[in-house]
Every structure is written in structure tokens, then in C-alpha cells.
Design the sequence.
């Protein structure tokens, strides 16, 4: 195998990693996103990582994970609301600038591919990301699920509460509208405004709410327990729909650690006590919280580049195909 460059395009930063032929990291960088065109930012982050690695680690391919609606076959970022990107040909821009093939994949699916590989590369796995939004990347029997529109995994917009709060997508009662970061902040703001007993200020964000929950603040505990119940039910849905035996959880809210995870596990415990089905489907070690510093995005981009190279075959460059798995 040859060295590979993996790039993870996030909402606020670009992380890039160069690995050697044995997949050992030789250089990694992280830079905040700025006002330049997205393609220029990716190319300059890529060059920065390659400079840090040195000329002996010239990559055979580049992988890039991107948020939003990603057309991995065409190598195009179709739409990323947070990045104001529409139909951006990422693979062509980055690949042409650096003279090596570039493969693009949805960031969650790229990360899941790496996490799957790290855990032995067998069975089925879900990587649930809970932050500003909620999404999941599912690998069933080694195959990442993309779906006909590339929207597989957008469970943030599956109904959690019938006729519940309005979601940013225009529908009501979506999981995101009751259990993502902004929803946590909104619930707390409403309770503070109505005079509920709490140490939290009016503008408390989700991070602060989880810290207050760890300190026993009654409102923070109530809100985070509710969020945990919604997420536990979503996880039960994932397990029953796809037959995954591991659910890895990451994202901004998951960084809170135990105050985030414990309410989910308490709800799953209640379900296990109440139901034979739940006892079968939801083993006690089902959920694994990823450490906050996991660089799954950039590592996942490396996996995508390697599988892209394998699919393209020897001597190919400038491809557009990314193999499933
Ligand atoms: Zn929605």
C-alpha cells in the first residue's frame, strides 16, 4: 500500500491526516474554515498536511469526508446547508490541484467505515452523531447504507413526538427538534423564562446544560433525562430496523460523557426490564461512547481513499467510483 491523505471537512474546521503505507499517521493538521471558496480551503489544508509529512509521503490518493448531501459516485458535494455549498465538484477540484485521484464520501459514513475497520471489520454497526443535528451511518454486514437519494441515515427528521415542536426542516416533532443541541438549549430557555428552579442562565447552551446536570441542577437533569429517553428510543429503532449489534455515539452532545450517556442507558434498562424483546435486542454493552478526541473523520477519509483505489484498479486515476465497503 501507499501513503494516503485523508481530509475531513467539518462545519467549523478542516482536519487532514497523512498516513504511511501501513496506515500509521505521519502528519495531521486542523485549521478553522474561513471565507475563501471551499475548494481552495480544502486544497490549502491538503498542501499543509503534505508539507508537514514531507516529500517521501506523496499520497497515492486523497479521501475527503464532507457533511450534507454527498454524491460519492460523482465526487460532488450536492448540498451542505452549514457551508453554503451547492453542487461543488470536490473530487475534481482537490484531485486536479494535487495530481492524484480524490474520493469523496459523506463524513458520517466515512467515519463509520474506519470505526468498523477498527472493530475487526465484521458484524453490523451504527455510528450515531448527536450534535447540532442528529444523523446515523449504518454498516450492515460490511456494506455502508447510502440509499437512493444519499439521505439514508437522516434520522434526525424521523418523528419522535407526533405533532411536536417545529423542526428546521419544516416538519413537526422530528427527533432533532427534541433531542439535538439547539433543542436542549430551547427547552432550557423556555423553562428559565417561565421561572423554573435552576442555576442555568437564559442563554445556556447544551454543553452548559450537561455540565449543570452533572452537578445535579434539577432543570438540567429533567431536560437531559428527556433527551436520553428520546435517543434511547431512536437507538432501539436502529437496532430493530437494521440488526446492528453495536451503536457508537459521537458528536458535540456526546462529548459531555456520562451525563449524556447515563440517561440513555437508564431508559434502555427500563425497556429491558419491561420487555423480552428489548432484552434480546438491546444488550447492556450495546452503546459505546467515542472519546471526544477521536479523529474518525480524517481516518475515515483515508479508508474511503483506499477502497476507492481498490475499486478503480491498478493504473487508474481521476476516477469517480467509490466502492461500497
Ligand atoms: Zn426535521
Sequence:
Amino acid at each position: 500500500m501507499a501513503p494516503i491523505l485523508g481530509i475531513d471537512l467539518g462545519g467549523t474546521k478542516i482536519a487532514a491526516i497523512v498516513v504511511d503505507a501501513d496506515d500509521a499517521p505521519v502528519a495531521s493538521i486542523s485549521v478553522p474554515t474561513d471565507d475563501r471558496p471551499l475548494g481552495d480551503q480544502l486544497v490549502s489544508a491538503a498542501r499543509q498536511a503534505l508539507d508537514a509529512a514531507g516529500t517521501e509521503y506523496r499520497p497515492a490518493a486523497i479521501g475527503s469526508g464532507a457533511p450534507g448531501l454527498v454524491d460519492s459516485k460523482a465526487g460532488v458535494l450536492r448540498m451542505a446547508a452549514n457551508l453554503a455549498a451547492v453542487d461543488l465538484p470536490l473530487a475534481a477540484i482537490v484531485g486536479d490541484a494535487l495530481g492524484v485521484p480524490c474520493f469523496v464520501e459523506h463524513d458520517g459514513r466515512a467515519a463509520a467505515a474506519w470505526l468498523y475497520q477498527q472493530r475487526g471489520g465484521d458484524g453490523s454497526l451504527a455510528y450515531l452523531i448527536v450534535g447540532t443535528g442528529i444523523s446515523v451511518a449504518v454498516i450492515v454486514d460490511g456494506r455502508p447504507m447510502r440509499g437512493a437519494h444519499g439521505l439514508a441515515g437522516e434520522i434526525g427528521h424521523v418523528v419522535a413526538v407526533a405533532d411536536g415542536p417545529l423542526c428546521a426542516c419544516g416538519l413537526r416533532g422530528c427527533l432533532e427538534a427534541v433531542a439535538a443541541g439547539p433543542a436542549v438549549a430551547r427547552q432550557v430557555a423556555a423553562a428559565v423564562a417561565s421561572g423554573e428552579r435552576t442555576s442555568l442562565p437564559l442563554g445556556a447552551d447544551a454543553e452548559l446544560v450537561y455540565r449543570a446536570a452533572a452537578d445535579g441542577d434539577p432543570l438540567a437533569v429533567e431536560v437531559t433525562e428527556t433527551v436520553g429517553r428520546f435517543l434511547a428510543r431512536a437507538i432501539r429503532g436502529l437496532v430493530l430496523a437494521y440488526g446492528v449489534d453495536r451503536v457508537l455515539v459521537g458528536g458535540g452532545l456526546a462529548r459531555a460523557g456520562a451525563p449524556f450517556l447515563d440517561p440513555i442507558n437508564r431508559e434502555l434498562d427500563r425497556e429491558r426490564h419491561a420487555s423480552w424483546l428489548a432484552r434480546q435486542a438491546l444488550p447492556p454493552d450495546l452503546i459505546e461512547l467515542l472519546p471526544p478526541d477521536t479523529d474518525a473523520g480524517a481516518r475515515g477519509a483515508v479508508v474511503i481513499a483506499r477502497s476507492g483505489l481498490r475499486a478503480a484498479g491498478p493504473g487508474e486515476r481521476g476516477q469517480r467510483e467509490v466502492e461500497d465497503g
